[in-house]
Amino acid sequence: MYINTKGLILKEARYKEADRIITLFTEKCGKITVSAHGALSKRSKYSASTQSLTYSDFVLDYRKGKYSVKEATVSEYFTGLRTDITKYSLACYFCDAVDVLSIEEASDVSILRIILNALYALSNDLFSQEQIKAAFELKLISAVGFQPDVDSCCVCGAEDPEEPVFLIENGRLCCRKCHTAAMGFSLNIDESVLRAMRFILSSNLKNYISFRISEDNMMLLSRVCESFFLEHTDRRFSTLDYWKSVK
Ligand SMILES: [Zn+2]
Predict the structure, then answer these.
(1) Domain 2-76 is found in CATH 3.90.360.10
(2) Confidence category of residue 15, pLDDT binned at 50, 70, 90
(3) How far is the CA of 169 from the centre of ligand 1 (A)?
(4) What's the gap in Å between 192 CA and the centre of ligand 1?
(5) Which residue in 42, 78, 131, 136 has its CB near the most CB atoms, within 10 A?
(6) Are the CB atoms for 227 and 185 separated by under 8 Å?
(7) Which tens digits make up the pLDDT trace of 174-215?
(8) What are the backbone dihedrals phi and psi of residue 243, each rounded to the nearest 5 degrees, phi first?
(9) pTM of the model
(10) What's the gap in Å between 202 CA and the centre of ligand 1?
């Protein structure tokens, strides 16, 4: 059976002499593992289109429970990611994050849109890397089921709490005066960080990165989004550590 679908290559590995095994996030089938026979040979037509961080049009051959590449054409190559080690390492972290949080063969186009828009923004320098990363982490983690509730204080119900505190462990918001130590790991935020978080969570998958925030507040937003993301993925990402070492 042949399947026509677009897909983003999250990672690739060499196999045998000239074959590639790719982890592909497709529009139609979600995340799948696909073999690309001869993709590394000099004469291969699929060398570029089966490379990591490439979004391609595929014709996949599905046989006996296995996928292989029949045809592949590059749709978006994200050139800007390939010449800058900081952008490249951050893009690899995004791919690792999607890989870890997605289930094999569960189609979820929203996850694909979230990462494609982040890669596009990163490749084209549309926003700072910190901003793209923070928005991506918060949008992705909420798309996979850990959506924080930042509408109002979870104790007194105030909609715009003075001196707001974000509760990392349970993804809720409260006022400084309502906060207790029993609420666990929490971070003090401020109005502009809260506004940015609300923007990221409520906006559509195309615009979720496009907000304005001062540089100082960006650092705080970055810390909040990363802490929340890592708390709920419950693991370390070597690509994230690497990005931090080169940025
Ligand atoms: Zn309160």
Answers:
(1) no
(2) confident
(3) 17
(4) 18
(5) 136
(6) yes
(7) 999 999 999 999 999 999 999 999 999 999 999 999 999 999
(8) -55, -45
(9) 0.96
(10) 22
